[in-house]
Amino acid sequence: MARYLITGVAGFVGSWLARELVGRGETVRGIDNLSSGSLAALAGIENAIEFLYADLRNPGALEVACKDVDFILHQAAIDSVQRSIDDPIGTSGVNLEGTLHLISAAQNAGVRRIVFASSAAVYGDQADCPIVETAATNPLSPYATQKLSCEQYLANAFEFSGIETVSLRYFNVFGPRTAAGAPPAGAIAQFAAKMFGTDQGGPILYGDGTQTRDFVYISDVVQANLLALRAPRETVAGKVFNVGSGRAHTIRLAFESVASMIGYTGEPRFAQARPGEPLRSLASLEAVHAALGFQPAVSFAEGLYKTVSWYRQQLSSRPAKPRLERRKAERKPLLARQAGASAAAKTERATRNVGRERQVDAQTFADAVRNGELELFYQPILDLRGSRIAGVEALLRWRCENRLLTPAHFIHLAEEKGLTPLIGAWVFGEACKQIIVFQRSLRTDLRLAVNISPLELEQSNLLRTIDGALSKSGVDYSCLDLEVTERTLVRDCSTTQQNLAQLRRRGVRIAVDDFGIGYSNMNYLYRFPIDCIKIDQSFVQHRGHARVLDGIVAFARALGVRTVAEGVETAGQLSYVTQAQCDEAQGFYIIRPIPAGNLVQAIRDFEAAHAPERTPTLRLPGAALAAIDASSAWEEPQ
Ligand code: C2E
Ligand code: MG
Ligand code: MG
Predict the structure, then answer these.
(1) Is 366 within the bounds of a domain?
(2) Mutation choice for ligand 1 from 346, 381, 382, 396, CB with most ligand atoms inside 8 A
(3) Are 335 and 420 members of one domain?
(4) Model confidence over 226-250: pLDDT tens digits?
(5) What is the number of domains present in the chain?
(6) Is the pLDDT confidence value at 21 over 60?
(7) Gap from CA of 330 to ligand 2 centroid (Å)
């Protein structure tokens, strides 16, 4: 059975293609960096496709994405003409270079055919309408130039390597789920969203409204793609085809039609015609009909009706609760294939329940330390700017009678009995030994975060313990983050102060863990040198606390310290903390705490599949955020 890869799968056309293929029982993999697409667009099919959260500019991710694939439907792009004018280099990085990376990965993986979403923008303004594919191209914007170049590279690829490539020049595609909660793209979606009031402000008409467009309904675009996948090599490979309706309508007519369906009586706001947009546009369908058998099936009026009905339904169903499956899927780790991670997660869940019933006495615990029953798990920390795993946090586990206990079940007792310095010494020794192995295997300067209890920090021999562990293993001080709690810092103990100051002088960074839940008096921030604030998960997971999170980030900025968002459990939370400009994040949605033995592979897999190599940031634009927000990803974790 054939396997399909859809790039930009969480976008408008990509998600429609995914639905169609899944409905036909096909095996579908999708890749998207959610920069403008939304997971909400995949609601209902999220469990039926393999989703890779990754960027086109990451060749490693594309290698993974193309593995065992027969056909690629390449939809991913930054499709804003204005953005391409403002930032030709950045948009070219995605639209053109991203496509080149994809072609290369596809060739290496032996992919049979790539069907590429090109654009009628390559024609610019044409004297003769309808426009035939052989018309001289006239790209009026960097976006159009990028699409045209991609077509040509794809034709070259066919000529020189034999991979079958087909480019489809989409005219004005419209239909339901245009942007799944993001600001509507395209005139019709914009009119509907604004007339229904789901998008702020009145509908806007650019220019005088007399410009003509060939509006093609989304299901016809899907049909054209499927035909392009199936058509014989000799008829389509290396070629370009129009995908339109073969009919032209003025933008003003589109406005009035949508208004009459909705019952909107207001006038549009007129705005200056946008640069890079032609006056007339109409597809000739002769060639595409002859080669692919393409024939649009949905009329303009019918398409409008379907689109408007969808917007109406969206409105009436608000605020609908997201389906449980969708919420669960959102919470799946980004990389579902983490080696051993799911088994570890299962053990973790079991432990949490078991541990609650368990009474631990101090003697048993002291024996456990001596008998080597302690173990370290590690949770990776994602750098939200470089999109890489920047470090790991060592998290203590106690393997007790074949069960794995988390600190919640024993750390208080250990502290009460004065055992935390004993545990701490073990944790430092073990973590330093292991981090060196991780760093060498991954060839990075992965940071190590270690939690330290108040009692440990009050020990006068703490420096000796840490110095010993670092020098024995060869770990540099600058790789170490010490996570202290607010509770520690408010105790105002002079030994603690001295220890922290000395460690900082050596290059160790000090982080305040679970920030925001401990104390309203933050005088300690003046007494202690702090490098990082780890924002407590309650501010990340509860929608009502979003403003507090924003405030903490602003506050940290003012102090010149980094922020780490803890407890990221959903895509929505990840996009929110990214948008809020946290520096780093950790949580079950990224990677769960996992045993040391699984860590290197988990990080490798994660970075291969997700981290854009040359993407400066994972920051999602407001549009994607709004989309995820609209999908109610903020629901309380269960
Ligand atoms: P912490 O330092 O804030 O560590 C993060 C805790 O949040 C970990 O719990 C981790 O499993 C959990 N976590 C990570 N991602 C998520 C998420 O997405 N959702 C939720 N709900 N939880 C998430 P864990 O491992 O049970 O550790 C609990 C606490 O125990 C730690 O909180 C830390 O304060 C303490 N601890 C862990 N290891 C050590 C240690 O070696 N020494 C000392 N003194 N304390 C430790
Ligand atoms: Mg911690
Ligand atoms: Mg914490």
Answers:
(1) no
(2) 396
(3) no
(4) 999 999 999 999 999 999 999 999 8
(5) 3
(6) yes
(7) 24
